[in-house]
Amino acid sequence: QAPVLRELALSEPITRDDVRVVVRANVDIPEEAELAAGSGAEGVGLMRTEFLVVGRASMPDEEEQYRSYKRVLLAFGNRPVVIRTFDIGGDKLPVGGFPTEPNPFLGWRAIRMCLDESDLFKVQLRALLRAAVHGDLRIMLPLVVTVDEVRETRQLIAEAVAELSARRVPFRDDVPLGVMVETPAAAIACDTLVRDVDFFSIGSNDLVQYTLAVDRGNANLAPRFTPFHPAVLRLMAQVQSTGEANGIDVCVCGEMASQPLAVFALMGLGIRQLSVAPRAVADVKRIIRGVRAGAAEDAARAAMQAGTAREAEILLRRRLRAEL
Ligand code: PEP
Ligand code: MG
Protein backbone atom coordinates (compact mmCIF):
# COMPACT_ATOMS: atom_id res chain seq x y z
CA GLN A 1 0.00 0.00 0.00
CA ALA A 2 1.23 3.52 -0.80
CA PRO A 3 2.09 5.62 2.31
CA VAL A 4 -0.92 7.96 1.85
CA LEU A 5 -3.31 5.03 1.55
CA ARG A 6 -1.71 3.40 4.57
CA GLU A 7 -2.18 6.58 6.60
CA LEU A 8 -5.80 6.78 5.48
CA ALA A 9 -6.41 3.13 6.36
CA LEU A 10 -5.16 3.73 9.91
CA SER A 11 -7.04 7.03 10.38
CA GLU A 12 -10.18 7.51 12.49
CA PRO A 13 -13.42 7.15 10.51
CA ILE A 14 -15.10 10.40 11.59
CA THR A 15 -17.24 12.55 9.32
CA ARG A 16 -16.70 16.29 8.83
CA ASP A 17 -19.65 16.89 11.18
CA ASP A 18 -18.07 14.65 13.84
CA VAL A 19 -20.01 11.42 13.47
CA ARG A 20 -17.94 8.37 14.39
CA VAL A 21 -18.32 5.26 12.24
CA VAL A 22 -17.02 1.78 13.05
CA VAL A 23 -15.22 0.05 10.18
CA ARG A 24 -14.58 -3.66 10.56
CA ALA A 25 -13.23 -6.27 8.13
CA ASN A 26 -14.75 -9.29 6.42
CA VAL A 27 -12.60 -12.41 6.68
CA ASP A 28 -13.21 -15.52 4.57
CA ILE A 29 -10.32 -17.74 5.67
CA PRO A 30 -8.18 -17.78 8.86
CA GLU A 31 -5.05 -17.18 6.76
CA GLU A 32 -6.37 -13.64 6.08
CA ALA A 33 -6.64 -12.82 9.77
CA GLU A 34 -3.24 -11.18 10.30
CA LEU A 35 -3.55 -9.09 7.13
CA ALA A 36 -7.06 -8.00 8.12
CA ALA A 37 -5.89 -7.18 11.66
CA GLY A 38 -3.31 -4.77 10.21
CA SER A 39 -5.73 -3.23 7.69
CA GLY A 40 -6.98 -0.48 9.99
CA ALA A 41 -10.21 -2.36 10.75
CA GLU A 42 -11.60 -2.29 14.29
CA GLY A 43 -12.33 -5.98 14.42
CA VAL A 44 -14.11 -8.49 12.19
CA GLY A 45 -17.73 -7.77 11.27
CA LEU A 46 -18.15 -11.01 9.34
CA MET A 47 -16.03 -14.09 9.39
CA ARG A 48 -17.49 -16.66 7.02
CA THR A 49 -16.91 -20.29 8.04
CA GLU A 50 -17.79 -22.05 4.80
CA PHE A 51 -14.06 -22.50 4.04
CA LEU A 52 -14.28 -25.40 6.51
CA VAL A 53 -16.82 -27.16 4.31
CA VAL A 54 -16.85 -25.93 0.72
CA GLY A 55 -14.95 -28.21 -1.63
CA ARG A 56 -14.42 -30.81 1.11
CA ALA A 57 -15.94 -34.24 1.39
CA SER A 58 -16.22 -34.43 5.20
CA MET A 59 -17.10 -32.05 8.01
CA PRO A 60 -14.26 -30.62 10.13
CA ASP A 61 -14.10 -31.82 13.74
CA GLU A 62 -14.37 -29.57 16.80
CA GLU A 63 -10.61 -29.32 17.24
CA GLU A 64 -9.94 -28.15 13.69
CA GLN A 65 -12.70 -25.57 13.94
CA TYR A 66 -11.50 -24.38 17.34
CA ARG A 67 -7.98 -23.82 15.98
CA SER A 68 -9.28 -21.84 12.98
CA TYR A 69 -11.47 -19.53 15.09
CA LYS A 70 -8.74 -19.10 17.71
CA ARG A 71 -6.28 -17.89 15.07
CA VAL A 72 -8.59 -15.05 14.07
CA LEU A 73 -9.35 -14.08 17.68
CA LEU A 74 -5.66 -13.99 18.59
CA ALA A 75 -4.89 -11.82 15.55
CA PHE A 76 -7.49 -9.27 16.68
CA GLY A 77 -6.62 -9.13 20.40
CA ASN A 78 -9.50 -7.48 22.26
CA ARG A 79 -11.23 -6.16 19.12
CA PRO A 80 -14.64 -7.76 18.38
CA VAL A 81 -14.75 -10.73 16.01
CA VAL A 82 -18.14 -11.74 14.62
CA ILE A 83 -18.10 -15.33 13.38
CA ARG A 84 -21.02 -16.55 11.30
CA THR A 85 -22.21 -20.13 11.64
CA PHE A 86 -22.25 -22.35 8.54
CA ASP A 87 -24.03 -20.74 5.59
CA ILE A 88 -23.90 -23.89 3.48
CA GLY A 89 -26.10 -24.29 0.41
CA GLY A 90 -27.12 -21.82 -2.31
CA ASP A 91 -23.82 -20.59 -3.74
CA LYS A 92 -21.69 -22.34 -1.05
CA LEU A 93 -21.58 -26.11 -1.56
CA PRO A 94 -19.56 -28.96 -0.06
CA VAL A 95 -18.37 -31.84 -2.22
CA GLY A 96 -20.89 -34.69 -2.40
CA GLY A 97 -23.43 -35.61 0.23
CA PHE A 98 -25.48 -32.48 -0.28
CA PRO A 99 -28.91 -32.79 -1.88
CA THR A 100 -29.36 -31.13 -5.26
CA GLU A 101 -32.42 -28.93 -5.16
CA PRO A 102 -34.50 -27.23 -7.83
CA ASN A 103 -34.20 -23.88 -6.01
CA PRO A 104 -30.99 -23.89 -3.94
CA PHE A 105 -31.31 -20.26 -2.84
CA LEU A 106 -34.76 -21.03 -1.45
CA GLY A 107 -33.74 -24.41 -0.17
CA TRP A 108 -32.48 -26.46 2.72
CA ARG A 109 -29.52 -24.32 3.67
CA ALA A 110 -27.75 -22.17 6.26
CA ILE A 111 -29.51 -21.96 9.65
CA ARG A 112 -32.30 -24.26 8.39
CA MET A 113 -29.89 -27.08 7.64
CA CYS A 114 -27.91 -26.47 10.84
CA LEU A 115 -31.00 -26.72 13.04
CA ASP A 116 -32.10 -29.92 11.30
CA GLU A 117 -28.61 -31.40 11.64
CA SER A 118 -28.18 -30.32 15.23
CA ASP A 119 -25.34 -32.71 16.08
CA LEU A 120 -23.26 -31.18 13.31
CA PHE A 121 -24.31 -27.66 14.39
CA LYS A 122 -23.35 -28.33 18.01
CA VAL A 123 -19.81 -29.27 16.98
CA GLN A 124 -19.47 -25.76 15.58
CA LEU A 125 -21.13 -24.14 18.59
CA ARG A 126 -18.81 -25.95 21.00
CA ALA A 127 -15.75 -24.92 18.96
CA LEU A 128 -16.97 -21.30 19.01
CA LEU A 129 -17.63 -21.24 22.77
CA ARG A 130 -14.17 -22.67 23.39
CA ALA A 131 -12.48 -20.18 21.02
CA ALA A 132 -14.31 -17.35 22.80
CA VAL A 133 -11.86 -17.46 25.73
CA HIS A 134 -9.23 -15.98 23.38
CA GLY A 135 -10.93 -12.67 22.60
CA ASP A 136 -14.21 -10.82 22.02
CA LEU A 137 -16.13 -13.38 19.97
CA ARG A 138 -19.71 -12.92 18.86
CA ILE A 139 -21.80 -15.53 17.05
CA MET A 140 -23.97 -14.65 14.05
CA LEU A 141 -26.67 -16.73 12.32
CA PRO A 142 -27.21 -16.61 8.52
CA LEU A 143 -30.49 -16.49 6.58
CA VAL A 144 -32.76 -16.05 9.58
CA VAL A 145 -36.44 -15.56 8.76
CA THR A 146 -38.04 -16.14 12.15
CA VAL A 147 -37.23 -15.67 15.82
CA ASP A 148 -37.84 -19.41 16.36
CA GLU A 149 -34.50 -20.05 14.67
CA VAL A 150 -32.77 -17.84 17.24
CA ARG A 151 -34.54 -19.52 20.15
CA GLU A 152 -33.72 -23.02 18.89
CA THR A 153 -30.08 -21.97 18.52
CA ARG A 154 -30.03 -20.67 22.10
CA GLN A 155 -31.32 -24.06 23.22
CA LEU A 156 -28.48 -25.81 21.34
CA ILE A 157 -25.97 -23.36 22.84
CA ALA A 158 -27.26 -24.33 26.30
CA GLU A 159 -26.71 -28.00 25.43
CA ALA A 160 -23.21 -27.21 24.11
CA VAL A 161 -22.44 -25.40 27.38
CA ALA A 162 -23.55 -28.44 29.39
CA GLU A 163 -21.41 -30.75 27.25
CA LEU A 164 -18.31 -28.56 27.59
CA SER A 165 -18.82 -28.23 31.36
CA ALA A 166 -18.93 -32.00 31.67
CA ARG A 167 -15.64 -32.21 29.74
CA ARG A 168 -14.05 -29.55 31.97
CA VAL A 169 -12.48 -27.63 29.07
CA PRO A 170 -12.22 -23.80 29.12
CA PHE A 171 -15.07 -21.96 27.34
CA ARG A 172 -17.37 -18.96 27.68
CA ASP A 173 -21.12 -19.18 28.13
CA ASP A 174 -21.88 -15.45 27.67
CA VAL A 175 -21.12 -15.08 23.96
CA PRO A 176 -23.40 -12.50 22.24
CA LEU A 177 -25.70 -13.91 19.54
CA GLY A 178 -26.77 -11.87 16.52
CA VAL A 179 -28.42 -12.44 13.18
CA MET A 180 -27.86 -11.57 9.55
CA VAL A 181 -30.73 -9.50 8.24
CA GLU A 182 -30.59 -10.71 4.66
CA THR A 183 -34.14 -11.76 3.83
CA PRO A 184 -37.11 -9.44 3.34
CA ALA A 185 -38.86 -11.35 6.15
CA ALA A 186 -36.13 -10.54 8.66
CA ALA A 187 -35.95 -6.92 7.54
CA ILE A 188 -39.69 -6.20 7.49
CA ALA A 189 -40.35 -7.97 10.78
CA CYS A 190 -37.03 -7.11 12.48
CA ASP A 191 -39.02 -5.84 15.47
CA THR A 192 -39.97 -9.47 16.17
CA LEU A 193 -36.27 -10.31 16.62
CA VAL A 194 -35.06 -7.51 18.87
CA ARG A 195 -35.87 -9.16 22.20
CA ASP A 196 -33.94 -12.33 21.31
CA VAL A 197 -30.82 -11.04 19.58
CA ASP A 198 -27.81 -8.96 20.57
CA PHE A 199 -27.08 -7.40 17.17
CA PHE A 200 -28.14 -7.16 13.53
CA SER A 201 -25.90 -7.33 10.49
CA ILE A 202 -27.45 -6.53 7.15
CA GLY A 203 -26.30 -8.90 4.41
CA SER A 204 -26.91 -6.72 1.41
CA ASN A 205 -25.86 -9.38 -1.11
CA ASP A 206 -28.73 -11.65 -0.20
CA LEU A 207 -31.10 -8.85 0.79
CA VAL A 208 -30.80 -7.41 -2.72
CA GLN A 209 -31.14 -10.87 -4.28
CA TYR A 210 -34.30 -11.79 -2.35
CA THR A 211 -35.93 -8.35 -2.45
CA LEU A 212 -35.47 -7.82 -6.18
CA ALA A 213 -35.76 -11.52 -7.09
CA VAL A 214 -32.44 -11.21 -8.92
CA ASP A 215 -29.98 -14.12 -8.71
CA ARG A 216 -26.77 -12.66 -7.22
CA GLY A 217 -24.56 -14.90 -9.36
CA ASN A 218 -26.26 -14.56 -12.76
CA ALA A 219 -24.11 -12.45 -15.09
CA ASN A 220 -27.07 -11.71 -17.36
CA LEU A 221 -28.76 -9.98 -14.43
CA ALA A 222 -25.75 -8.04 -13.14
CA PRO A 223 -27.09 -4.59 -14.15
CA ARG A 224 -30.35 -5.36 -12.33
CA PHE A 225 -28.55 -6.36 -9.13
CA THR A 226 -28.42 -3.03 -7.28
CA PRO A 227 -28.59 -1.95 -3.64
CA PHE A 228 -29.89 1.47 -4.76
CA HIS A 229 -33.41 0.25 -5.54
CA PRO A 230 -35.70 2.28 -3.28
CA ALA A 231 -37.20 -0.95 -1.89
CA VAL A 232 -33.77 -2.08 -0.68
CA LEU A 233 -32.88 1.34 0.74
CA ARG A 234 -36.19 1.55 2.60
CA LEU A 235 -35.78 -1.92 4.09
CA MET A 236 -32.31 -1.05 5.36
CA ALA A 237 -33.57 2.25 6.81
CA GLN A 238 -36.26 0.32 8.66
CA VAL A 239 -33.76 -2.14 10.12
CA GLN A 240 -31.49 0.71 11.22
CA SER A 241 -34.27 2.68 12.92
CA THR A 242 -35.77 -0.40 14.62
CA GLY A 243 -32.31 -1.42 15.84
CA GLU A 244 -31.59 2.07 17.11
CA ALA A 245 -34.96 2.33 18.90
CA ASN A 246 -34.26 -0.96 20.69
CA GLY A 247 -30.58 -0.50 21.50
CA ILE A 248 -29.47 -3.14 18.97
CA ASP A 249 -26.30 -2.43 16.94
CA VAL A 250 -26.80 -2.56 13.18
CA CYS A 251 -23.87 -3.27 10.87
CA VAL A 252 -23.81 -3.75 7.09
CA CYS A 253 -21.49 -6.54 5.97
CA GLY A 254 -22.46 -7.15 2.31
CA GLU A 255 -20.31 -6.09 -0.64
CA MET A 256 -22.04 -2.72 -0.92
CA ALA A 257 -20.31 -1.56 2.28
CA SER A 258 -17.01 -1.63 0.37
CA GLN A 259 -18.24 0.68 -2.42
CA PRO A 260 -17.78 4.47 -2.04
CA LEU A 261 -21.21 5.55 -3.29
CA ALA A 262 -22.95 2.90 -1.21
CA VAL A 263 -21.00 3.96 1.89
CA PHE A 264 -22.42 7.46 1.42
CA ALA A 265 -25.94 6.03 1.04
CA LEU A 266 -25.56 3.82 4.14
CA MET A 267 -24.30 6.75 6.21
CA GLY A 268 -27.39 8.56 5.04
CA LEU A 269 -29.63 5.72 6.22
CA GLY A 270 -28.13 6.15 9.69
CA ILE A 271 -25.82 3.13 9.49
CA ARG A 272 -22.77 3.66 11.73
CA GLN A 273 -21.08 0.25 11.43
CA LEU A 274 -19.65 -1.25 8.27
CA SER A 275 -17.76 -4.46 7.65
CA VAL A 276 -15.73 -4.37 4.46
CA ALA A 277 -13.08 -6.19 2.45
CA PRO A 278 -9.69 -5.51 4.14
CA ARG A 279 -8.34 -3.92 0.96
CA ALA A 280 -11.29 -1.48 0.92
CA VAL A 281 -10.70 -0.04 4.41
CA ALA A 282 -8.74 3.00 3.18
CA ASP A 283 -11.28 3.90 0.51
CA VAL A 284 -14.23 3.51 2.87
CA LYS A 285 -12.55 5.77 5.44
CA ARG A 286 -11.81 8.31 2.71
CA ILE A 287 -15.53 8.64 2.04
CA ILE A 288 -16.49 8.77 5.72
CA ARG A 289 -13.90 11.46 6.45
CA GLY A 290 -14.81 13.46 3.37
CA VAL A 291 -18.55 13.87 3.95
CA ARG A 292 -21.01 15.27 6.48
CA ALA A 293 -23.44 12.69 7.90
CA GLY A 294 -26.14 15.39 7.70
CA ALA A 295 -25.63 15.76 3.95
CA ALA A 296 -25.68 11.98 3.52
CA GLU A 297 -28.97 11.82 5.44
CA ASP A 298 -30.56 14.46 3.17
CA ALA A 299 -29.34 12.55 0.11
CA ALA A 300 -30.59 9.17 1.40
CA ARG A 301 -34.02 10.61 2.17
CA ALA A 302 -34.28 11.80 -1.41
CA ALA A 303 -32.90 8.51 -2.77
CA MET A 304 -35.53 6.51 -0.88
CA GLN A 305 -38.22 8.56 -2.59
CA ALA A 306 -36.67 8.18 -6.07
CA GLY A 307 -38.73 6.33 -8.65
CA THR A 308 -36.00 3.93 -9.72
CA ALA A 309 -32.60 2.58 -8.67
CA ARG A 310 -31.03 4.54 -11.50
CA GLU A 311 -32.55 7.81 -10.34
CA ALA A 312 -31.49 7.11 -6.75
CA GLU A 313 -27.95 6.34 -7.87
CA ILE A 314 -27.63 9.47 -10.01
CA LEU A 315 -28.94 11.61 -7.18
CA LEU A 316 -26.57 10.07 -4.63
CA ARG A 317 -23.64 10.42 -7.01
CA ARG A 318 -24.34 14.11 -7.53
CA ARG A 319 -24.64 14.76 -3.78
CA LEU A 320 -21.49 12.80 -2.98
CA ARG A 321 -19.48 14.70 -5.60
CA ALA A 322 -20.66 17.97 -4.07
CA GLU A 323 -19.44 16.80 -0.64
CA LEU A 324 -15.97 15.63 -1.60
C1 PEP B 1 -24.63 -11.12 2.30
O1 PEP B 1 -25.51 -11.89 1.92
O2 PEP B 1 -24.64 -9.89 2.07
C2 PEP B 1 -23.47 -11.61 3.06
C3 PEP B 1 -22.64 -10.77 3.64
O3 PEP B 1 -23.27 -12.95 3.13
P1 PEP B 1 -22.80 -13.87 1.92
O4 PEP B 1 -22.28 -12.96 0.84
O5 PEP B 1 -21.78 -14.77 2.50
O6 PEP B 1 -24.06 -14.57 1.53
MG1 MG C 1 -25.72 -13.91 2.67
From TrEMBL:
<feature type="domain" description="PEP-utilising enzyme C-terminal">
    <location>
        <begin position="14"/>
        <end position="291"/>
    </location>
</feature>
<feature type="binding site">
    <location>
        <position position="48"/>
    </location>
    <ligand>
        <name>phosphoenolpyruvate</name>
    </ligand>
</feature>
<keyword id="KW-0418">Kinase</keyword>
<keyword id="KW-0808">Transferase</keyword>
<feature type="active site" description="Proton donor">
    <location>
        <position position="253"/>
    </location>
</feature>
<feature type="binding site">
    <location>
        <position position="84"/>
    </location>
    <ligand>
        <name>phosphoenolpyruvate</name>
    </ligand>
</feature>
<keyword id="KW-0762">Sugar transport</keyword>
<dbReference type="GO" id="GO:0046872">
    <property type="term" value="F:metal ion binding"/>
</dbReference>
<keyword id="KW-0479">Metal-binding</keyword>
<keyword id="KW-0813">Transport</keyword>
<dbReference type="GO" id="GO:0009401">
    <property type="term" value="P:phosphoenolpyruvate-dependent sugar phosphotransferase system"/>
</dbReference>
<keyword id="KW-0670">Pyruvate</keyword>
<feature type="binding site">
    <location>
        <position position="206"/>
    </location>
    <ligand>
        <name>Mg(2+)</name>
    </ligand>
</feature>
<feature type="binding site">
    <location>
        <begin position="205"/>
        <end position="206"/>
    </location>
    <ligand>
        <name>phosphoenolpyruvate</name>
    </ligand>
</feature>
<dbReference type="GO" id="GO:0005737">
    <property type="term" value="C:cytoplasm"/>
</dbReference>
<keyword id="KW-0175">Coiled coil</keyword>
<protein>
    <recommendedName>
        <fullName>Phosphoenolpyruvate-protein phosphotransferase</fullName>
        <ecNumber>2.7.3.9</ecNumber>
    </recommendedName>
</protein>
<feature type="binding site">
    <location>
        <position position="216"/>
    </location>
    <ligand>
        <name>phosphoenolpyruvate</name>
    </ligand>
</feature>
<keyword id="KW-0460">Magnesium</keyword>
<dbReference type="GO" id="GO:0016301">
    <property type="term" value="F:kinase activity"/>
</dbReference>
<keyword id="KW-0598">Phosphotransferase system</keyword>
<keyword id="KW-0963">Cytoplasm</keyword>
<dbReference type="GO" id="GO:0008965">
    <property type="term" value="F:phosphoenolpyruvate-protein phosphotransferase activity"/>
</dbReference>
<comment type="similarity">
    <text>Belongs to the PEP-utilizing enzyme family.</text>
</comment>
<comment type="function">
    <text>General (non sugar-specific) component of the phosphoenolpyruvate-dependent sugar phosphotransferase system (sugar PTS). This major carbohydrate active-transport system catalyzes the phosphorylation of incoming sugar substrates concomitantly with their translocation across the cell membrane. Enzyme I transfers the phosphoryl group from phosphoenolpyruvate (PEP) to the phosphoryl carrier protein (HPr).</text>
</comment>
<feature type="binding site">
    <location>
        <position position="182"/>
    </location>
    <ligand>
        <name>Mg(2+)</name>
    </ligand>
</feature>
